[in-house]
Amino acid sequence: MTEKSMIQILVIEDNPSMLKLLQYMLGNIGYDQVTICSSGQEGLIWLESVDDTQTIILLDLNMSKMDGIEFVRHLANRQFKGHVLLLSGEDERIRETVHKLITNYKIASLGHLHKPVNLELLSLKLEKWRQFQPKESITNKKQYSANELRSAIANHEFINYYQPQVDVKSTKVVGVESLVRWYHPVDGIIFPDQFIHIAETHGLIDDLTRAVIKAAFTQTKAWQKSGLKLQVAINISMDNFADLDFADYLLNATANAGIMPSDIVLEITESKLMTSSSISMEVLTRLRIHRFSLSIDDFGTGHSSLSQLCNIPFNELKIDQSFVHDIINNETQRAIFNASLGLTKQLGMKSVAEGVEDKVDWTFLRSTDCDIAQGYFIAKPMPAEDIYPWIIKWEAAHHL
Ligand code: C2E
Ligand code: CA
Ligand code: CA
C-alpha cells in the first residue's frame, strides 16, 4: 500500500464542476481515496464514520450554506485530528487569516491555495502533510507553581543558552542572545514559555532576571578573555524597570564582571498592557546614557509598538519572527518587514531579523539592508561552551 492510498481526502466545495475537477486532479497525482461533498453539513456527517487522523480536508471557503470558517469551528468542536488545506478565490490576506485561525484551533493546516487550483502546487502542499502536526497546546503542558519556581531559583537550576547573531552583509558572528532554560531535576529541560509568566505574576521575575544577568555577564567576560568579542543580549521583562535601583544594579554588575555597558543589549518586551511609567522611562534613559543598548523585542506584535518607540530611547529593533520566516510567500509580511526596516533607517537604529528558519529566509534577508540575522537556519540556542566550536565551524563554512 502506498502512503498516498493510506490518506483519505475529503473535498468540500459547493460548485459541482469545481468538485469534479478537483477529484480528477487528485486522481492524477495518485490520491485514490477521495470523497466529495457539496456542503459542510454533508462533510461533518461523513467525518462521523472515519478515522480522522488519516484525513485531509480540501476546504472551499466561500460556500452558500455553511461557509468554510463556520465549518472549521465545527471541526474544532469535535477536536478534529486530521489536516486541512484551504482553497479560495479570496485574496492572500484573507486566506492567510483563516489559515492562522485554523492553527489557533490547534488543527493542522497545510496552508492555502488560490482558486483555480494549480496541480503542481496542490501536489506540493499535500506531500507535506506528515510534517504539519498541530502545535502542542500550552494547556497540555505541566503547570509549575510559584513555590517550585522559587526553590528552583534558590537551587540555581536556571541555565542560560545562547543563540548566535550574525551580520547579514559580512556573515560574521557579532553577538548572542541569552535564552534561559530550567534544568528541572525530574522533568528535564523546561522552556521559558512555561515559567516566565509565573515569575512575572508572582513577584519572582527580579530574582530570576538577576540570576540570568549574573551568569550572562560572567560569560561575556570569559568569552572576552578567550579573544571572542560578542555583544550579549539579555531578555528583560518590563516589570524589572519598575524599580528605580535597577539601573544602578546593572551598572555595578557590569563593573564587577569587568565588562562595559556597550557589551550588553537589553531586549525589552511588554508581556502585559502597561503604559511606560515615568520610573521605567527614567531607568531606561539612564541605562542608554551609560551606553547599554536598548532593543525593542518582537517589534510589531502585542504591546511592542510604535508608541513605545516614541517613549523609550531604543537603538535596536528586532523584527518579530512572524514577519520574517516564510517572508517570500507572504506579501503582507513583506510589507510589514519593509516598513519596520524603513523605520530603523530613518531613526538610525540597528535592525535585527529573528526567525531566519531556512535557506529561503536567509537568501531573502541577504538581499535587504537589514543589519543582523538570528534564527534556526544560522544556529539554535546552545549551551555557552558550544558557542566557540560553533563559531569556528561557521567561519570555516563562510570563508571568514
Ligand atoms: P524571544 O526573546 O523572542 O526569543 C526568541 C525565541 O525564538 C526563543 O525561544 C528562540 O529559541 C526561538 N527561536 C530562535 N530562532 C528561531 C527560529 O528560527 N524559528 C523559531 N520558530 N523560533 C526561533 P525560547 O528560548 O523558548 O524563548 C521564548 C521567550 O521567552 C523569549 O522570546 C523571551 O521573550 C522569553 N525569555 C527567554 N529567556 C528569558 C529571560 O532570561 N528573561 C525573560 N524575561 N524572558 C526570557
Ligand atoms: Ca528576545
Ligand atoms: Ca523576539
Task: Describe this structure in a few short sentences.
The chain is 40% helix and 22% strand.
Please give the radius of gyration in angstroms.
25 Å
Q: Unreliable runs, pLDDT <50, ≥5 residues?
A: none
Strand arrangement across the biggest beta sheet: 6-7-9-10-11-12-13-14
**Count of strand segments:** 15
Q: At the first level of CATH, what is the class of the largest domain? A: Alpha Beta
The total tally of domains equals 2
Q: What is the architecture of the largest domain at the second tier of CATH?
A: Alpha-Beta Barrel
CATH superfamily of the largest domain: EAL domain
* Shape descriptor: elongated
Helical amount among residues, as a percent range?
40-55%
SSE class: alpha/beta
Q: Which cofactors or ions or other ligands sit in this model? A: ligand C2E, calcium ion
Distance between the termini: 50 Å
- Which series of helices and strands comes N to C? HEHEHEHEHEHHEEEHHEHEHEHEHEHEEH
CATH topology value of the largest domain:
TIM Barrel
How confident is the prediction overall: mean pLDDT? 92
Largest sheet: 8 strands, mixed, barrel
